Amino acid sequence: MTSDKRDALAGYARLAPVIPVVTIDDPETAVPLARTLVEAGLPVVEVTLRTQAALAAMERIARDVPDAVIAAGTVIRPAQIGEVAAAGARFIVTPGTSPAMADALAGCALPVMPACASVSEALALLERGFRILKFFPAGASGGPAWLKAVSAPVPDLRFCPTGGVDPRNAPDYLACPNVLCVGGSWMVPKDAVAAGDWARIGALAREAAALRTTP
User: Fold this and answer.
1) Distance between CA atoms of 150 and 121, rounded to whole angstroms?
2) Can you tell me the distance from the alpha carbon of 211 to that of 31, in angstroms, rounded to the nearest whole number?
3) Any residues with CB less than 8 A from the CB of 137 and at least 6 apart, and which?
4) How many helices (H) and strands (E) does the chain have?
């Protein structure tokens, strides 16, 4: 990945301590959800490609919530790269990264935050020019202890741990010197999204936005 795309990704990752990870079933909820998160101080919104509504949701957010930075999550096939770019995504996030997928992502037009779950995977991605990685599933793969352990031998890497991150342990992750931000979905409960309870989501998002970040 080129230096300009790395710089852009670093800028996005530093906008807030938490990236909300959202799974949207109904495109009608996309705009009010994104607007609520942005207004609460969480401008980066990862929309996962786990539903049929995901691309339409990205398109609506890109059109109607210009202050939102859309991250396309759960990108697992090269064909999806062009789809999410056309839908308005600013960068791509993967849940894991095969060698073939890493090659495709290294040459794409958007910044990319590919995922790793081990030091070997992290080093393979570093060799392809990726320096900001998603650490997933963070809780099951070693948590803050893993991040602290790799900070010295792999000093050039920065991470966004996701998976098992919640309000109780998020500060422990954010205290790691190699963590730029964390990802999580606790501020977007499914029942609140389905009910359109934007007040509840806004309150949870404001608490997330206030979490301590590293210098």
Assistant:
1) 12
2) 25
3) 117, 162, 163, 164
4) 10, 9
Q: What is the mean pLDDT of residues 85-89?
A: 98
pTM of the model: 0.96
Listed residue (138, 132, 202, 146) closest to 170, CA to CA = 138
Q: SS3 for 30?
A: helix
Q: Tokens for 33?
A: 């959800």
The whole-angstrom separation of Cα 174 and Cα 207 is: 14
Pairing type for strands 182-184 and 44-48 reads unpaired
Q: What share of the chain is helix, strand, coil (3-state, %, to 5)?
A: 45, 15, 40
Q: Is 159 helix (H, G, I), strand (E, B) or coil?
A: strand
The angle at the Cα of 166, spanning 209 to 149, to the nearest 5 degrees, equals 100
Q: What structural domains and CATH numbers belong to the chain?
A: 3-209 (3.20.20.70)
| pLDDT value at residue 205 | 98
pLDDT tens sequence across 183-210: 999 999 999 999 999 999 999 999 999 9
Residue numbers annotated as active site: 46, 134
Q: How confident is the model at residue 214 (pLDDT cuts 50, 70, 90)?
A: very low
Q: 182, 204, 207, 208: which is closest to 193 by C-alpha?
A: 204
